[in-house]
């Protein structure tokens, strides 16, 4: 009897359940490889990576140094610096504040000054401050300023854009600062 039982185990074929599990694992592995392989070389792509670094550097510089009340409090922006940077006239309620970078921001009369100040390396950029729930194409027009908080060195419609954002606070109100570089 023992010989017969051993014979049956040697002739046992693949069951339907074994086949289904093996096929499923194989198909999931192939699907993962097909989905993951195109992104494998993304860090080595030259174009958008450099623009993204420039956008991130510009956003950090604007929110953490140029418009900040102090470098110890990045993200809390001085309304006076914001007025100088975006070239808007401030209301009497916020005009009295000081700007640590007033001399630097007053030199932004042309596109070259904008490029040099944000280290854009010859690229075009748009810096916008907008409400947290709105798109960057809709800049905020606060009651304490006479215009929208947006500045650009080129009015062309960009095609391939790198975007960096920071959450900032001006006069106790939270906004989003967006830098688009192309």
Please characterize this protein's 3D structure:
It is a single chain. The protein is of the alpha+beta class and 182 residues long. The chain folds into two domains: 2-39; 46-181, no CATH class. It contains six helices and five strands, in the order αααβαααββββ. It has helices at residues 2-10, 16-36, 47-66, 79-86, 102-106, 111-118, and strands spanning 76-77, 125-130, 150-152, 162-170, 173-181. Strands 1-4-5-2-3 form a five-stranded mixed sheet. The longest helix is centred in the N-terminal third of the chain and has 21 residues, at 16-36.
Short description:
The chain is an alpha+beta fold and 182 residues long. The protein has helices at residues 2-10, 16-36, 47-66, 79-86, 102-106, 111-118, and strands at 76-77, 125-130, 150-152, 162-170, 173-181.
Largest sheet: 5 strands, mixed
Shape: elongated
Treating each run of at least 4 consecutive H or I residues as one helix, how many helices? 6
The overall strand count is 5
**Topology pattern, helix = H, strand = E:** HHHEHHHEEEE
Low-confidence stretches: none
Domain module count = 2
Keywords:
five-stranded mixed sheet; 182 residues; 2 domains; alpha+beta
Topology (elements, then pairings):
Elements: H1 2-10, H2 16-36, H3 47-66, E1 76-77, H4 79-86, H5 102-106, H6 111-118, E2 125-130, E3 150-152, E4 162-170, E5 173-181
Parallel strand pairs: 1-4
Antiparallel strand pairs: 2-3, 2-5, 4-5
């Amino acid at each position: 009897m023992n010989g017969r039982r051993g014979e049956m185990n040697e002739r046992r074929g693949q069951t339907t359940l074994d086949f289904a599990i093996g096929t499923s694992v194989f198909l999931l592995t192939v699907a993962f490889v097909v989905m993951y392989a195109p992104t494998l070389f993304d860090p080595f792509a030259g174009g958008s990576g450099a623009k993204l670094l420039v956008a991130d550097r510009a956003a950090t510089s604007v929110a953490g140094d140029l418009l900040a009340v102090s470098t110890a409090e990045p993200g809390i922006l001085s309304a006076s610096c914001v007025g100088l940077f975006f070239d808007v006239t401030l209301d009497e309620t916020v005009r009295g504040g000081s700007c640590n970078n007033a001399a630097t921001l007053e030199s932004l009369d042309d596109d070259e000054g904008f490029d040099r100040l944000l280290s854009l390396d010859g690229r075009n950029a748009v810096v916008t401050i907008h409400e947290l729930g709105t798109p960057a194409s809709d800049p905020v027009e606060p009651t304490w300023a006479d215009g929208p908080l947006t500045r650009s060195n080129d009015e062309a419609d960009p095609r391939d854009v790198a975007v960096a954002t920071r959450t900032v606070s001006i006069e106790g109100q939270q906004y989003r600062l967006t830098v688009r570089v192309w």
